[in-house]
Amino acid sequence: MIAGDTRQSEGYSIQTRYAPKVWQLTDKAVLATNGFAADGNNFVKRVKQRLEWYEHAHQKQMSIKSIARMIQTMLYGERFFPYYVYNILGGIEEDGSGAVYSFDPVGSYEREACRAAGAAQSLIQPFLDNQIYFKNQQPAPGAGPFVPGNLPLSTVLSVVVDSFSSATERHIEVGDGLEIFVVMAAGRSTDDLLGEGRLAPGMEVEELHPLGQGGGERTFLVRCPLKRD
């Protein structure tokens, strides 16, 4: 799962209320960019172009692990005049497990369980550390320690929405709308997402069309309104 708000602003000026920051690359991979919008848009365009070349040459989509390495090479190759963007790549590995890769502007990257970047990173990342890694949580007397692991889709969706909703209360550069991309492995049940009453009022979900000959993975886009002031 990877998400981004839609506000593009500079200081106290809102340039547009709908500027997507998250992009579907393949049936298994989604990329989020934040920072200098023009650099971000151009970088996504170059990444998509290389993925298209790869698919034409090999008759298959590039794996997310290989996409991460390709992005690292592209960023490092421009290190003397870098893209002023931070990237987060998320999706499904070839073994069906989920993966998140975070990048700095010159190509350093690592695989993590969760990561926030952008204007509200200092607000969202501690919240994710607490809810996903259970940092600074004390178990009840007699109970065992909290152990990070896989969480239900509905729980993760609630954490993501709550983190952005909280950020809009404290940061003027975050708001307007939230786009959440959910990449599901082949055969994964969608009841947690499409079941009756699963989404909060005002939230909408749509399934995106496959981009190629994938392995049965499905990508959904969930939209949620945020504060507009």
TrEMBL record:
Main localization (coarse): nucleus
Protein's recorded name: Proteasome subunit beta
Keyword set, alphabetical order: Cytoplasm, Nucleus, Proteasome
Claim: Cytoplasm is one of the keywords in the record: yes
BP GO terms, sorted: proteolysis involved in protein catabolic process
Transmembrane segments: none
InterPro entries documented for this protein: Ntn_hydrolases_N, Proteasome_sua/b, Proteasome_suB-type
Keyword Cytoplasm part of the UniProt annotation: yes
Recorded superkingdom: Eukaryota
PANTHER family documented for this protein: METALLOPROTEASE TLDD, PROTEASOME SUBUNIT BETA TYPE-1
A cellular-component GO term for this protein: nucleus
Protein location: Nucleus
